Amino acid sequence: MFDWRWQIKDRKLRFNFPLIVGILNLTPDSFYSQSRCEGRSSALRRAKKLVSEGADILDLGAESTRPGAEFVSEEEEIARLLPALEEIRAAFPDIPISVDTRRGMVAKEAIEAGADIINDVSSLSDPLMLEVAAHYLPGLILTHAPNELASGQDRDFSMGEVKKYLRERTSRVVGLGVPRDAIVWDPGLGFGKTPDCNWRLLTDLKELTADSLVMCAASRKRFTRRDPDAPESPSNSGLPGTIKAHTIAMENGAAMLRVHDVAEAKKLLKGGLRV
User: I need a surface site. Which of 146, 163, 209, 275 has the fewest CB within 10 A?
Assistant: First the structure.
């Protein structure tokens, strides 16, 4: 039986089963089209669906982090994010809300609008993010994505390299007063890594979960498809591979699963879904 604890602002989440983090993309170009929302009403509908299916946390992103995606301006990211965040916060005052951003100013605006968690795939590359984290003390998710959001050549990483990177990024913010138990590690599946590397990191995940709360974010990524080089389709769906990845992650102690398909993830937790 696990006894996980995550410090988020002035409260501590305590849980003994993996939390389901439902993905809500406020972007026109995120890689999985069914997670995209345009405008606050569309975002609220998806949030209601995710919560009704059993999401424990909602993760809002207003800039795509898929390989090759174009960065948007800080102003555009905030304009996409805040109306939806405010609408969802009002509808769900108690559910933790995470914001997927690499920019400190976006994180600041989001926290002041009601976000509880910052999911920074760049792991504090923006110096302002350090200041925001130290001032507001949100829950903080740090990702191993050293290749500039996978814009470089995919390569193999050992779990030792992943752990060293995350430890170094963690020490930066802990040194500024952020509690260590506010920080979650994400091994960065799909970010600049070969398909074989992603599966190997999942198999070796206990090396991370021994030292930190860990979130697995494998959902429908390219490596989960039968043919990683072909687009997502009914015959090349990433869902079976995602279920397999989540199963391995849970067996190795993952505390959170970041998913597009909340209902299927909840079935997996209850033992009713098999690869």
Answer: 275
Measured between alpha carbons, how far is 125 from 136 in angstroms, rounded to an integer? 18
Q: Which helix (H) or strand (E) holds 105?
A: helix 104-112
- Exposed e or buried b per residue across 59-97, where buried means at least 16 C-beta atoms within 10 angstroms of its C-beta: bbbbbbbbbebeebebeebbebbbbbbebbbeebeebbb
What is the rounded distance in angstroms from the CA atom of residue 273 to the CA atom of residue 150? Answer: 31
- Cα of 245 vs its chain's centroid, Å: 15
Number of neighbouring beta carbons within 10 Å of residue 203: 13
Residues with active-site annotation: 221, 258
CB neighbours of residue 151 within 10 Å: 12
Backbone angles phi, psi at 42, to 5 degrees: -65, -40
User: Can you give the pTM of this predicted structure?
Assistant: 0.91
C-alpha 158 chain-centroid distance: 21
Domain count, the chain: 1
Return d(Cα 224, Cα 241) in angstroms, integer: 4
Q: Which residues have a Cβ under 8 Å from the Cβ of 102 and sit 6 or more positions away?
A: 63, 65, 120, 121, 122, 125, 126, 129, 149
The string of pLDDT tens digits covering residues 207-252 is 999 999 999 999 999 899 988 888 888 888 889 999 999 999 999 9
Q: State which residues form the domain around 34.
A: 4-269
Identify residue 23 by its one-letter amino acid code: I
Q: Which of 113, 129, 29, 115 is nearest to 72 (CA)?
A: 29
Residue 234 neighbours by CB under 8 Å, 6+ apart: none
CATH of the domain at 77: 3.20.20.20
